[in-house]
Design goal:
five-stranded parallel β-sheet, globular
């Protein structure tokens, strides 16, 4: 009896305090083939991180891009993080995930993570203050994947 090989680890990454080039390089170095953007609002003041520019820049590196908007943190959760209230963000996000659209997007994330080495992207550098860690736990509960939190080189 042979056992199936373990699926590749699911990665997460935040781009705060970094640049597009450094994030892309971290993804390439780790063998990521698909970036799953779990931001509610896929726009950024940081160059290279708005949805279209991000997708195009990743494509040049051979990395696919999928935006899963329903897996983003609701505004009330984003406001809680800005106040430093991570516990409230986590509670609000878990409540948000009970909805039909978020559950469907989570099922899509699970299917995509099973199909290629994938990485979840959001803004916060520290995964402990970001909902992407919760999304990663939810995906991993379905796929059996280990979760690895990448930390791109910071600017300055």
């Amino acid at each position: 009896m042979t056992t199936a090989p373990a699926p590749p680890a699911l990665r997460t990454i935040g781009y705060q305090a970094s640049t597009f080039d450094r994030v892309r390089d971290a993804l390439v170095a780790d063998g990521v083939q698909l970036l799953l953007d779990v931001r509610a609002l896929p726009a950024s003041r940081k160059p290279g991180f708005s949805k279209r520019l991000l997708a195009a820049g990743l494509a040049e590196a051979g990395i696919g891009y999928v935006h899963l908007q329903p897996l983003g943190t609701p505004k009330s959760g984003r406001d809680a993080v800005r106040r430093g209230d991570v516990a409230t963000m986590q509670l609000l996000f878990r409540e948000h995930m009970a909805g039909d659209r978020p559950r469907a997007a989570l099922a899509e994330a699970v299917a995509l993570a099973r199909g290629a080495p994938a990485c979840l992207l959001c803004f916060e550098r520290d995964h402990r203050t970001c909902h992407r860690a919760l999304v990663a736990e939810m995906v991993a509960a379905e796929t059996g994947q280990a979760v690895v939190h990448l930390l791109p080189r910071a600017v300055g």
